[in-house]
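User: Can you model how 6CS sits in this protein?
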Amino acid sequence: ESWKFALEEIDGSVQDAYAEAFKKRIEEKSGGEVTVNIYPYGTLGTSTQLTELAANGAIQFANASPGHLGKLIPEIQVLSIPYLLSQNNECNKQVLGGSEVIYENLDEKFENQGLKLLTMYPEGQMVWTTNKKITSPEDFSNFKIRVMTSPLLVRAYEAFGANPTPMPYSEVYSGLQLGQIDGQVNPIFAIEEMKFYEVQDYMIWAGQQQFTTTVVANYGFYDGLSDEHRQLVDSTVDEMVDVIFKTQDQYNKERLEKIKQTSDIEMIHLNEEQRAVFAERAKQVEKKFVEMTGDSGEKVLNALTQEIKSCEDKMGS
Ligand code: 6CS
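Assistant: Here's the modeled complex, given as structure tokens:
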């Protein structure tokens, strides 16, 4: 048996590290009975297209990031509300990797789209890269910032005072180079491997957002697995929670050093006061989210907020 796993990121990325480790485990544990083929970004299509392929069963597994999933599953955009996830990434890992409340609330939404939600994991703090120094919403005036294609992200960056432009990942580098956009936002490892830092002047930390992704399977495929194979998938997904958390942390640290060594891009960390101004604006985004998703979205929002808070209380952060 052969399973296809499609990525929204290129070779050497965090999603690639996940898929490689997943593949290795599945193939070993199944004694070679199952093989996994990995399709990095660029081989099968944009994020949106990969989700379609997984939903229609052309592929068995795919990464489907909330940043691109919002039109199909509006509730998943809860993960795109700025300043909602924890500053303590350990809590994000725990809640995204294991919270039954969150999965209970989201399972059905994915199933309705032909998808099985297998797992969610953080890939690192998202950093703005820009051609202009941005420290306040006023600085964002008339600033074209590329966002992923989920509708809530447009709302979020409007609330921050910018002109958001949704576009696929593959078009960002040329968009920056040609001046069609003035900036974009992504975790550090991606800024390095996609070379965005080469065509930008600033990297700006505002603490607003953790990049998160989901791994989905085709629903019919997952549902039709033998008990043995379902157990194989489920146990591997469980094991991967800690593995990928360490990897993303390491990749983001290493790649930041690489950027520092190879470029003179200016790095700016917004202070508490500057962040608070953006955080205040994020409250409008939370409202928009509830408007967009109604009761079901509000339930997910409340569950997530509570789970994060109780983790932070436990960890004393
Ligand atoms: O910005 C994007 O569209 C993409 N960024 C990352 C880090 N992963 C996948 C996503 O599609």
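A couple of observations from the model: The radius of gyration is 19 Å. The chain has a mean pLDDT of 97.
User: Helpful, thanks.
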